[in-house]
Amino acid sequence: MMNQKPVIAIHQLDHYFGTGKLRKQVLFDINLEIFAGEIVIMTGPSGSGKTTLLTLIGGLRSAQSGSLNILGQELCGASQKELVKARRHNGYIFQAHNLHGSLTALENVQMGLEVHGTLSKGERHRRATEMLKQVGLKEHIDYYPANLSGGQKQRVAIARALVSRPKIVLADEPTAALDKKTGRDVVDLMHDLAKKQGCTILLVTHDNRILDIADQIVYMEDGRLATQPESVAMS
Amino acid sequence: MLGFIKTLIERTPLGLLQLKHDRMRLLVAIAGITFADVLIFMQLGFAAALYKTNTQYPRTLKADLVIIGTQAKNFGKLRTFPRRRLYQALDVPGVASADALYIQSVDWRNPQTRKKTSMLLVGQNPDRPSFNLPEVNQQLDAIRMPDTVLFDRASRGKYQDIITRVQQGERVTTEIGRRTVTVAGLFKVGASFSDDGALITSDQNFLRLFPKRDAGAVSLGLIRLHPGSDPDRVRAAVAARLPDDVQVLTNRGYIDFEMAEIKATSPIGFVFGLGTTMGFIVGIVIVYQVLSTDVNSHLAEYATFKAMGYRNAYLLGVIFEEALILSILGFIPGLAIALGAYQLTATATALPIAMPFGRGVIVLLLTFVMCGASGAIATRRLQAADPADIFS
Question: Which CATH code of 3.60.10.10, 1.20.1250.20, 3.40.50.300, 3.30.200.20 fits the domain covering A1-89+206-235?
Answer without folding.
Answer: 3.40.50.300
